[in-house]
Amino acid sequence: MASINLGEHFEKFVQRQIERGRYQNVSEVVRAGLRLLEDYERANTMISLPPILLDDSGKYMVGGRYFDRQELTIELQQKGVTQAAINKLFELLPEKKVIDLHQNAIGPNDPQHYCNVGGWLLAY
What we know:
A six-stranded antiparallel β-sheet has the order 3-2-1-4-6-5. It has helices at residues 7-19, 26-44, 69-78, 83-96; strands at residues 52-54, 60-62, 65-67, 98-103, 114-117, 120-123. The model has no long low-confidence stretch (mean pLDDT 80). The protein has 124 residues and is of the alpha+beta class. The chain is rod-shaped, with a radius of gyration of 22 Å. It folds into two domains: 7-44; 52-123, no CATH class.
């Protein structure tokens, strides 16, 4: 069990929340606050990967390294890219040749060539 010092300001705030009946106890208030912080951090942590290129030999290049389709799939999964985004990437690459992947992004300044799939922005 964690013991924390909230300070006078937050102790009063927590007590008001409990008195208003919104929460049953201090732990509920703290957990609610932590959930909001977790959501905020997730939304404001954008993960960007180096551009993914499809060369003429059918190999994929990311950050100067070459991958076949299976290797690239594993590499992207390890970086947290959703399967839906990976599938869309492989669908678009033969035509577009270069795609950038960004997590939690709304859209680039030039919104004419992108799509959001599974929490990932594919820009081409």
